[in-house]
Design a protein that fits this description.
This protein is mainly alpha-helical. It has twelve helices and two strands; from the N terminus they run H-H-H-H-H-H-H-H-H-H-E-H-E-H.
Length: about 270
Amino acid sequence: MKQDYNEVTSNTQTLSEIKNFVKKMHSLPEVTRHINLAKHLMTFTSKPSCRGLLDMEQTIQEPLVSVLRLLILFSITNSGLPKENFDYMRNELLRSYGFEHMATLKNLEKAGLFKKQETKGNWLRVKRALQLVIEHSDTANPNDIDYVFSGYAPLSIRLVQHAIRSGWRPIEETLKLLPRPHSETKKGPFSSSASFDNFQGPETKVADGKRSLVLVIFIGGVTFAEISALRFLSSREGMAYDFIVGTTKMVSGHSLTETFVGKMEDL
């Protein structure tokens, strides 16, 4: 029996050999049941279909950056998450992707992109006032900048539109709903080109038939889609302005979110 025990405790024994050993030990019926159960389960888990299913389930988890992008959008458009949802999402993210991402969540909170909801969100009012979402967008024959995001007009470019049409004063109350401060500074003409205070709207050309230049600066980065929207504006018939874009960086939703992914040593 001792020899059998030594053999059965080695890593080379099969379930059948272990079962034969247990049969000799009538005082251990529970072990016998467990071995029978394991042997029965092996008939299923050893099948290729089961292994394929396991591989699929292990890879079904979305990449962290993709999850964070959706979370950031929800937080921004709702002025944060309700406390119970905030705590739940925070805990689930750490459990699913690792506690080393405490630094990532801290970075997002510091930037105001992931936070607890303290006030009612202004997204619906801003969306309606600036017509940011167009329900029936014609991407094949576009007539507005919303085509670059298949129905969503970039907020930054919509603000440029208002600036060249009539300035920001008519939308002053809407601008107050945005999360960051704003200002409008007008200067007198300093050359033959139309200055900011002399914008005549997109349908009016300057006297000499040449377009005026508008410099649009993006601090922190701009997407290719936003640049495409500006090009679309510039190509419209009757537009009196050409746009020059200056930026600190070209970004995408993915690359921008990646910059907030931190490490434990960053804490």
